[in-house]
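WARN retry 2 of 3 for item q-0093 after timeout on previous attempt; input resubmitted unchanged.
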Amino acid sequence: MFLITIISFRCSELDVRTAVVNSERKTKPVSSEQFDLAELNSRMGQMAAEEIIAEAYKVSDRVMTSTTFGHQSAAILHMVTRVNPDATILWIDTGYNTSATYRFADRLIERLNLNVEIYAPSMTTTRRNVLMGGIPEVEDPLHEEFTRQVKLEPFERATRNLAPEVWITGIRREQTAFRQTLQIASSSNNGLLKIAPLLNWDQAQLDAYLLEHNLPDEQDYFDPTKVHEARECGLQTRM
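OK item q-0093 returned
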């Protein structure tokens, strides 16, 4: 047993609580035997995005939605909270977000009354920058360790502590070559049922949704693990 301090935001008010977490706590593996992925995809393929989200909550009450508070992220967060106002939202704060992204996150947390669980890397940004000489180039072998520290390890820690069974993600098929191979429902490498309600949406549909609901957008987002827009950050390929 060990102590972990978990920081959560609700209505922009900082709530710090100390939780005792069992280091052996694991999420239940997800497989085609536990969930009929073919049947889920056949059904969800005919559904609107919000209907897919509602269906995810029928599958399990242990549902987590991840966000970066990046470009057009308000859409999936708005949909999820319309289905479940108390939805658990996971934000991996890499420590490399722009000032605009932090301000955007604060505004959206307040507007949508988000129940956000924030997880950060164990090492401070300043210390890592000193040891690694800043953000390693994508071609640098050190970039893989950088990605592990700022994105993958915090996500693994979060899933151990939050123990979700279902992971809702806002990824879209047109974003990367890898995502073009995915289905709406899939089994993640770390034992979660991964649901992508917006997988088949295009840019125009997202723009229209943000406009219809008068939602803000973040244009200054930067992901240090991706660097290039069409590159994967590691969560979707390794988690």
